[in-house]
Amino acid sequence: MNKIFLEVANLKKSYDNTKNSITLFDNVNIKIKEGELVALIGPSGSGKSSLLHLLALLDEPTNGKIIINNKETKNLTDVQKDNLRRRAISIIFQDNNLLTDFTAIENVMMPLIIRGENKKIILKKANRILKDVKIFDRSHHFPNELSGGEQQRVAIARALIAETNLILADEPTGNLDFKTSKEIFSLFLKLKKLKKTIIFATHNRELANRADYKLFISDGNIKRVNAS
Ligand SMILES: Nc1ncnc2c1ncn2[C@@H]1O[C@H](COP(=O)(O)OP(=O)(O)O)[C@@H](O)[C@H]1O
Ligand SMILES: [Mg+2]
């Protein structure tokens, strides 16, 4: 039995300002085990990106707890959060967040450069991963010289190189054709075999159904739904 890697207890997220307040979800309880591949689904605007930002510790819940690898994250300082993220969490953002002044391969190398790892080894790993995501021939292009789908593959490569235990992906295949989407999904399956935990938001039903199960955000709740 794999152990619980990520636990959310009594989680609430609302956005409040002077004019209006919206609650995306409330009293959410989820336990995700290591090695689980989970699809996060729900209509546009239901809170998928917000939940992923919370799990990445980039935003604070309105209420409730987020426990990662048995560590309650509420009282961590920003520096401690940065460190935890660097070691344990990779994020593929919806709008890919590539550094515009760096080439594709430099973007991919960045997480390991920040960790201070050996340059030669980093370069080797980056080349391999760029091949895995089928973007090797664009290694020396800058983000603005790449198509949306190519940028997304670079962002995926950047997340994979860090070999973190938790991978959060926000519509990672949103800009990709179906064939490339399936190839990215098969990389997720490989990571699952390595006991990585992967949560990916998607509108793609076929990919969602190939996850271990789905988390469906609707009506202020997040329900577990078995993949069909
Ligand atoms: N910083 C914010 N302030 C106020 N409302 C926000 C903020 N971020 C997101 N929202 C709102 O929260 C809702 C959920 O957004 P989001 O998490 O991006 O949904 P999804 O990723 O499922 O499309 C949307 O209605 C959005 O307008
Ligand atoms: Mg979103």
What does this structure look like?
The chain is of the alpha/beta class. It has one domain: P-loop containing nucleotide triphosphate hydrolases (Rossmann fold, 3-Layer(aba) Sandwich). It is built from 7 helices and 10 strands. The strands form 2 sheets. The chain has a 6-stranded mixed β-sheet with strand order 6-7-8-3-9-10, sandwiched between helices. The protein has a 4-stranded antiparallel β-sheet with strand order 2-1-4-5, with helices on one face. The two termini are about 25 Å apart. The model has no long low-confidence stretch (mean pLDDT about 95). Bound molecules: adenosine-5'-diphosphate and magnesium ion. The site of magnesium ion has 4 residues, from helix 1. Adenosine-5'-diphosphate (ADP) binds next to helix 1.
Overview features:
single chain; 228 residues; alpha/beta; six-stranded mixed β-sheet; four-stranded antiparallel β-sheet; 10 strands; 29% strand; globular; binds magnesium ion
Task: Give the SSE layout.
Blueprint: E1 4-16, E2 21-33, E3 37-41, H1 48-55, E4 63-68, E5 71-72, H2 78-88, E6 89-92, H3 104-114, H4 119-132, H5 148-161, E7 166-170, H6 178-193, E8 197-201, H7 205-209, E9 213-218, E10 221-226
Parallel strand pairs: 3-8, 3-9, 6-7, 7-8
Antiparallel strand pairs: 1-2, 1-4, 4-5, 9-10
Number of strands: 10
Assign the structural class, choosing from mainly alpha, mainly beta, alpha/beta, alpha+beta, or little secondary structure: alpha/beta
Low-confidence stretches: none
CATH C-level class: Alpha Beta
Quote the distance from N terminus to C terminus: 23 Å
Order of helices and strands: EEEHEEHEHHHEHEHEE
**What small molecules does the structure contain?**
adenosine-5'-diphosphate, magnesium ion
CATH topology grouping: Rossmann fold
Number of alpha- plus pi-helical segments: 7
